[in-house]
Amino acid sequence: MQLSVQERREKQKAELRSELVDAAHKLVQEEGYDGLTIRKLAKRVGYAPMSVYSYFADKQDILFALAEDAFETLARRIERHTADDPIEALKAVLVEYAAFGLENPNEYRTVFMTEKVRPPAGKTFADMESGNPAMKVLIERVEACVAAGRLKGDPRAIATMLWAVGHGAISLLITFPFYPLGDQKTFITRIGDIMLEAIAAHEIAPLTPPVNC
Q1: Are 106 and 28 contacting, i.e. CB atoms less than 8 angstroms apart?
Q2: To which H or E segment does residue 74 belong?
Q3: Of 195, 193, 184, 196, whose CA–CA distance to 99 is shortest?
Q4: How many CA atoms lie within 13 A of 4 on its CB side?
Q5: Across-strand partners of 152?
Q6: How far apart are CA 113 and CA 36, in angstroms?
Q7: What is the pLDDT of residue 193?
Q8: What are the strands, taking DSSP E only, across 3-155?
Q9: 3-class SS shares of the chain: helix, strand, coil, % to 5
Q10: Please, how many CA atoms are within 13 Å of residue 1, restricted to the half-sphere of its CB?
Q11: Cα 111 from Cα 21, distance rounded (Å)
Q12: Who's near 61: CB < 8 A, 6+ residues apart?
């Protein structure tokens, strides 16, 4: 079926945005946070800088786009690792998240360790969370643990606490590579095991009070 003029424009726009995100990933991997500029990104894809501003208001918007793309990649990696035991399936999320960060330290540092002072334009936090497939998989695996009676409490709170601990461990491994932490995978696995044991010993309350309707 032939596309309409509007549909062709939207398709071209989506393709160019995808090209810009891919180029931004490469810049970050090669040069880190400082290497990601609108001018360099425009030069990389052969467009005028003003063309980039048609897709991203500023550098922070590019970082949000990179984060969204990274979460999709991470979700696909996690979904390849399943287990009959829901706790083991949950541990696989932490291990894969760590592997993703340690394999891409420049990108992890830029995307996940750069301050975000506001949500992306036109999006709320709820929009961001609902569009994060990696967090969705993490919460689903926590829910499976709760349903099996292995963990107790609010799944989103448990997932967020696990993410916080995992992020801290990965950040430490990236920013203090000289610290004698031993084998990286063993370190991450031990932290995950201890955190899950601690969570399993308590009923975890929601992070924020429920909203009264």
Answers
A1: yes
A2: helix 59-79
A3: 184
A4: 3
A5: 203
A6: 15
A7: 95
A8: 152-153
A9: 70, 0, 30
A10: 3
A11: 12
A12: 120, 121
pLDDT of residue 213: 45
Question: Which of 31, 50, 33 minimizes the C-alpha distance to 42?
Answer: 50
Burial class (CB in 10 A: 0-12, 13-18, 19+), 171: middle
Joined together, the tokens standing for residue 190 give 């031990």
How many other β-carbons are positioned within 10 Å of the β-carbon of residue 179?
Answer: 9
CA torsion sign for 142, 147, 150, 152 is positive
- Pick the closest to residue 71 from 192, 196, 167 (CA basis): 167
CB 159 within 8 A of CB 93: no
d(CA 35, CA 27): 6
User: Which residues of the chain fall short of a pLDDT of 70?
Assistant: 1-3, 5, 117-122, 210-213
Distance of CA 154 to the CA centre of its chain: 21
Amino acid 5: pLDDT: 63
Q: What is the CA radius of gyration of the chain?
A: 20
Task: For each of the domains in the chain, give its residue range(s) and CATH number, in order of start.
Answer: 1-56 (1.10.10.60), 59-204 (1.10.357.10)
Strand partners, 153: 204
Tokens 């003003």 found at: 50
Q: Taking each helix axis from N to C terminus, what angle separates 155-175 and 105-112, rounded to the nearest 10 degrees?
A: 130
CB-facing half-sphere around the CA of 21: CA atoms within 13 A: 18
Rounded to the nearest angstrom, the gap between the alpha carbon of residue 181 and the centroid of all alpha carbons in its chain is 24
